[in-house]
Design goal:
Elements lengths: L11 H8 L3 H7 L1 E5 L1 H9 L9 E6 L1 H6 L1 H10 L2 E4 L2 H7 L8 E6 L5 H6 L4 E5 L5 H13 L4 E5 L8 H7 L8 E5 L1 H10 L3 E5 L5 E2 H7 L6 E5 L8 H6 L2 E4 L11 H18 L8
Parallel strand pairs: 2-3, 5-6, 5-10, 6-7, 8-10, 8-11, 9-11
Antiparallel strand pairs: 1-4, 2-4
Helix pairs in contact: 3-5, 8-9, 8-13
């Protein structure tokens, strides 16, 4: 194929990628940006439900193309366009202060909520009213690490493809189904109909996470609903849950941030489900 020439910052391809920093253009084009070697590596390996590659284009500095030759070769093998780019191009398109030399243009990859339900999930994270993109991406990463089957972002939550969300997920965006734009009432109703117990995480919850674990009630299919870090879950959303659960604070900390609380809750459910001896598993 030969060595591609360095692409100009004024190239139409660069300008098209740069526009994806804006949500309106992401929605119009149904494309988003993945930055850094970890995210791009996962994008190279990912396929959509139609079997088509998720990565469409790759911009790489000469140094990064040499350092991550396996990623660049993999991108070429999927049929993605590969552009060698000077640092100025990555700086134009990147949303970070220090670009990492690899930047991919990817197709949207969210899953229909109906597909999430059809798969009969056992552990789901529902992000309701989560507005901070860094929190959303980090919770997605926590859900992936805990072995969750899916993540749902309600219509009141941040855009999944916000560059900060994508970066904070550190590649986990490509690992598990994510449904977006689902009204919280619809999400809860659909999950309940699928036999999933709904737990709302709230620092003022009536039920204690330790008590739930001791009672053996967390071994069955579970969805955790997480809210805005600053003001938590609205009363209407808490009322939809089967239980409102607080993470116990044993020390003097005022509270936990959203991502930390989500990690604690998701891992608690994952452990209970894997133990195989809880009341929830015997239902």
């Amino acid at each position: 194929m030969g060595t591609p020439e360095l692409i100009s910052p004024r190239s139409p391809r660069v300008l098209a990628a740069k526009r994806l920093a804006r949500r309106a253009f992401r929605i119009k084009e149904r494309r988003f940006i993945a930055e850094g070697p970890q995210a791009v590596r996962e994008a190279v390996a990912h396929r959509g439900p139609d079997g088509e590659p998720t990565l469409l284009e790759l911009f790489a500095t000469v140094e990064a193309a040499e350092r991550y030759a396996d990623i660049v070769d993999g991108a070429r093998e999927t049929g993605a366009r590969v552009h060698l780019a000077p640092d100025t191009v990555l700086a134009e398109v990147s949303q970070t202060v220090t670009p990492q030399g690899l930047l991919g243009v990817c197709r949207f990859l969210d899953s229909p909520f109906e597909d999430v339900l059809r798969a009969r999930p056992r552990l789901v994270a529902v992000l309701a009213h989560v507005r901070d993109p860094g929190n959303a991406g980090t919770v997605l990463r926590c859900a992936d690490a805990a072995g969750a089957d899916a993540v749902v972002l309600t219509d009141a939550s941040v855009d999944l493809y916000n560059p900060k969300s994508v970066r904070a997920s550190v590649g986990s965006l490509f690992h598990l189904p994510v449904a977006v734009g689902v009204p919280v009432e619809e999400a809860v109703r659909g999950l309940k109909d699928a036999g999933v117990r709904i737990l709302a995480a709230d620092g003022a919850g009536d039920d204690d996470l330790d008590d739930e674990l001791d009672a053996g009630t967390m071994g069955g299919p579970t969805a955790w609903v997480f809210g805005n870090e600053a003001w938590g879950l609205p009363a209407g959303t808490r009322a939809l849950a089967d239980a409102v659960v607080r993470v116990p604070i044993h020390g003097k900390a005022e509270s936990l941030n959203l991502a930390t609380a989500a990690a604690v809750c998701l891992y608690a459910s994952a452990r209970a489900q894997r133990s195989g001896n809880s009341a929830g598993n015997r239902r």
